[in-house]
Write a structure and sequence with these properties.
- The chain has 471 residues and is α/β, with parallel strands linked by helices.
- The chain has three domains: 133 residues, HUPs (Rossmann fold), CATH 3.40.50; 124 residues, Serine Threonine Protein Phosphatase 5, Tetratricopeptide repeat (Alpha Horseshoe), CATH 1.25.40; 166 residues, DNA Cyclobutane Dipyrimidine Photolyase, subunit A, domain 3, CATH 1.10.579.
- Helix content is 49%, strand content 6%.
- It contains 20 helices and five strands.
- Strands 3-2-1-4-5 form a five-stranded parallel β-sheet, with helices on both faces.
- Helix 5 links the parallel strand 4 and strand 5.
- The longest helix has 22 residues.
- The radius of gyration is 24 Å and the shape is globular.
- The relative contact order is 0.11.
- The structure holds flavin-adenine dinucleotide (FAD).
- Flavin-adenine dinucleotide (FAD) binds next to helix 9, helix 11, helix 14 and helix 16.
- The site of flavin-adenine dinucleotide (FAD) has 29 residues, from helix 9, helix 11, helix 14 and helix 16.
Length: 471
């Protein structure tokens, strides 16, 4: 048998079951053939943010070096559409005389369909296809006692932890060592790709550097997570989300780090790491949902009846939301952070999402797409899940009558206004007691450099509640 692999969102030597499986079959002296397909048309269709692509592309340049040193013979090709993928993988298998192709599975519907087509063509040629669950800790196999999928997060998280407990009991941690051959190969050439890029150099790339970031976070900062995670001014969350989305880290590596903190892992963790683990379970929850609920892949609401909602059409308000000119400082700070960094603090993501949907009564899909086009960690399942949660159209979502008051939220999450001042420069000199609702303070000073609020929250809230009740 000669095994190769097709790498997608998993450019890493550690904790990569597809790579480990191919390595095992090939013998230590033999290079492992691996294919990477880059498809600008498909990135465009899936709204890849230029900053996300820049991060992946920079990482790819690092990966070709470490892969060559580890004896992985990469072939990198640019293809014009996903329709071409089956032929390209088949050609690769023929050229390399493979009897098996290994991949780490991807869960959204487009990816499932693409892989099904590739598998069918390979099997026609007598090449076996093996999918591994390398990008989730728990594959989408969890069901309730009555055999249905989990629609609520809390029971899902409980079952997820139980599954992990059993898995660790049986097998321990899988594939954590980097794969390495006893041979080296020449580094592959990274082709030019016609897709826009936005500078991502504030984010490290390269498997080792990313892994160190994770280790450092667990050693030094995760303890404070429970207390500080909702305070965007402190900015003390891990900022690891793009690495999981792009597969430069595997979630098993987080498990490996957390397991060192408790002999009874996943039990008996301190509050900080325990709450952080729960966030990683949210990530998996949304991937499972995307896999099990096809309509989520077609832009539909999880709660079907909410698809009848009459959203407003208001290009001007949407534009002002996008540009961070709503006159609600916490909302504007978040949107400006997104534009500048390609990232936004989780709490603020929730606030701006609530604002778009509930204060402006605009379709959550507009916000979902804008986020994808700008986020460095843009992830179809997590982003869709976050938007539907905020819009009260999702599973286990915020109930519709829970309408965030942007000013009260602002006081709560940014009490001293430091986050707002960092991003909304016009308010740099605004005192703490006015920073969350600076309208009057600005008027008294006859200042028009920062806008007055574009809606009256009380009125907007009633408008939203009435529209939702009518469904
Ligand atoms: P930490 O707080 O350090 O959390 C650790 C990890 O857990 C994250 O890196 C992430 O992988 C995962 N995680 C944390 N919170 C969530 C969550 N609510 N849902 C799913 N996974 C979570 N996350 C994305 O990765 N990509 C997205 O496109 C995305 N879009 C979002 C849109 C909206 C409207 C909302 C409300 C949330 C969205 N999230 C998204 C979830 C969350 O905001 C980010 O994962 C988080 O802010 C990333 O920062 P961090 O790495 O410092 O997270």
């Amino acid at each position: 048998a000669r095994a190769g692999l097709w790498l997608r969102h998993d450019l890493r030597l550690r904790s990569n079951p597809a790579l480990a499986a191919a390595a095992k079959l090939n013998g230590a002296e033999q290079p492992i053939p691996a294919l990477i397909l880059l498809c600008p048309q498909q990135m465009h269709e899936h709204d890849w943010a230029p900053i996300k692509w820049d991060l992946y592309y920079r990482h790819l340049h690092e990966f070709v070096k470490s892969a060559a040193a580890a004896g992985i013979a990469l072939s990198i090709q640019v293809i014009e559409s996903w329709q071409v993928a089956p032929k390209a993988v088949k050609r690769f298998a023929e050229q390399q005389q493979l009897s098996e192709v290994h991949v780490n599975v991807e869960y959204p519907l487009h990816e499932v369909r693409r892989d099904r087509a590739v598998k069918a063509l390979l099997e026609q040629q007598g090449v076996a296809w093996h999918g591994h669950h390398g990008n989730l800790v728990v594959p989408p196999v969890l069901t309730t006692q009555t055999g249905t999928i989990y629609q609520k997060f809390t029971p899902f998280a409980k079952a997820w932890r139980q599954h992990l407990r059993e898995q660790l009991g049986h097998n321990g941690l899988p594939f954590m060592q980097p794969v390495e051959r006893r041979c080296k190969v020449a580094a592959a050439v990274v082709p030019e790709v016609d897709y826009p890029r936005q500078d991502s150099s504030a984010w490290v790339v390269g498997e080792d550097a990313v892994y160190q970031q994770l280790q450092g976070y667990i050693e030094e900062r995760v303890t404070a997570y429970a207390a500080e995670r909702d305070l965007p001014g402190l900015d003390t969350t891990s900022r690891l989300s793009p690495y999981w989305e792009l597969g430069m880290l595997s979630p098993w590596q987080a498990v490996q780090q957390l397991a060192q903190l408790s002999p009874d892992f996943p039990d008996a963790l301190d509050q900080g790491p325990d709450v952080w683990l729960t966030e990683l379970i949210w990530r998996e929850f949304y991937q499972h949902l995307m896999f099990h609920v096809p309509r989520l892949n077609y832009g539909k609401a999880f709660l079907k009846h909410t698809d009848a909602m009459q959203w407003r059409e208001d290009a001007d308000s949407f534009q002002r939301w996008c540009e961070g000119r709503t006159g609600f400082p916490i909302v504007d700070a978040g949107m400006r952070q997104l534009a500048a960094e390609g990232w936004m603090h989780n709490r603020v993501r929730m606030i701006v999402a609530h604002f778009l949907v509930k204060d402006l009564l605009l379709d959550w899909r507009l916000g979902e797409q804008f986020f994808m086009r700008h986020l460095i960690d843009g992830s179809f399942p997590a982003n869709n899940g976050g938007w539907q949660w905020s819009a009260s159209t999702g599973t286990d979502a915020a109930p519709y009558f829970r309408v965030f008051n942007p000013t009260l939220q602002s006081e709560k999450v940014d009490p001293d206004g430091s986050y707002i001042r960092r991003w909304v420069k016009e308010l740099a000199d605004c005192p703490k007691q006015h920073i969350h609702a600076p309208g009057k303070w600005l008027k008294d000073r006859k200042r028009s450099d920062y806008p007055q609020p574009i809606v009256d929250h009380k009125v907007a809230r009633e408008r939203f509640l009435a529209a939702f009740k009518a469904l």
